[in-house]
Amino acid sequence: MDTLGGNITIGGDLAVRRLGFGAMRITGEGIWGEPKDHAGAVHLMRHVVESGVNFIDTADSYGPNVSEEIIAEALAPYKDGVVIATKAGFERPGPSVWKENGHPQHLRSAVEGSLKRLKLERIDLLQLHRIDPKVPVAESLGALVDLQREGKIRHIGLSQVTTQQLREAQRTATIVSLQNRYNVADREYENELEECERQNLAFMPWFPLAGEGTPEHDSLERIANAHHATPTQIAIVWLLARSPQMLPIPGTSSLAHFDENIAAADIELTVEEMKELCGPTDSAVPH
């Protein structure tokens, strides 16, 4: 396998390596406030980029604001080719509490705040973190399209949506990516991944390791042992093998875990191993 899973192009002009980094966990407990080791988080972010990762996913709600601030402290001014994707559409009343807010005024304020915190003049990829059921999606995306026309957003993506919601959103905005929950043990959004393949959209699986610790799957440990790897590494390499549109963004606050995650890109699964993980008639087996 190519270094870091090869490349993918987002929106026709953003070429990034196909194994990115999710920066949610560089914040405090409950994705709230400062991390216990601020200097360590800054060091980790620098190590991420030095290791060749050039796609970093964050959100204004991570902290809130903390993840974006640490990224800028560590990396601004950014090296050529480094893409920072962020998200807007949540409010954070407290630790582990998330409240959708898709009102245009909130989204505009959120994007302006992200630009300042990230020390950017334009956000390469701004993803609507959730569709707010209280606000017509055309109004939410209309605000992002206005910001795009003003040169403050390059591309627009969506998070945690169905194919039907994607198509409705595409009536208002050009969508270049989806970020949905997806992993070897949880493939509820298989249809959405296949839609991304049809439309050449990037698909960013969140929860790529199926939660804390080792993902639950009977075959992962056996296949990991065969490759002298860990089950979480096999979970990552399965994602990379699953689809060329896949852009996994495993996140961690640990430098050692990060190094372990990116080492997964050098593992190749056999067709038989993919069948064992997915089932011999499963559509998730690459053709």
Short description:
The chain is α/β, with parallel strands linked by helices and 287 residues long.
Q: Can you tell me about this structure?
A:
The chain has 287 residues and is α/β, with parallel strands linked by helices. The chain has a single domain (3-278), classed as NADP-dependent oxidoreductase domain (TIM Barrel, Alpha-Beta Barrel), CATH 3.20.20. Helices cover 36% and strands 17% of the residues. The protein is built from 10 helices and 11 strands. The strands form 3 sheets. Strands 3-4-5-8-9-10-11 form a 7-stranded parallel beta sheet, covered by helices on one side. α5 (163-169) links the parallel β9 (153-159) and β10. It is globular.
Blueprint (SSEs and pairs):
Blueprint: E1 7-10, E2 14-17, E3 21-22, H1 38-50, E4 55-57, H2 66-75, E5 83-88, E6 90-91, E7 99-100, H3 104-118, E8 123-128, H4 137-149, E9 153-159, H5 163-169, E10 175-181, H6 190-199, E11 202-206, H7 220-226, H8 231-242, H9 255-263, H10 271-278
Parallel strand pairs: 3-4, 4-5, 5-8, 8-9, 9-10, 10-11
Antiparallel strand pairs: 1-2, 6-7
Distance between the termini: 17 Å
Radius of gyration: 18 Å
- Unreliable stretches (pLDDT < 50, length at least 5) are none
What is the string of SSEs from the N terminus onward? Answer: EEEHEHEEEHEHEHEHEHHHH
Beta-strand residue fraction = 15-25%
Instruction: Indicate the CATH topology.
Output: TIM Barrel
For the largest beta-sheet, the strand count, sense and barrel status come to: 7 strands, parallel
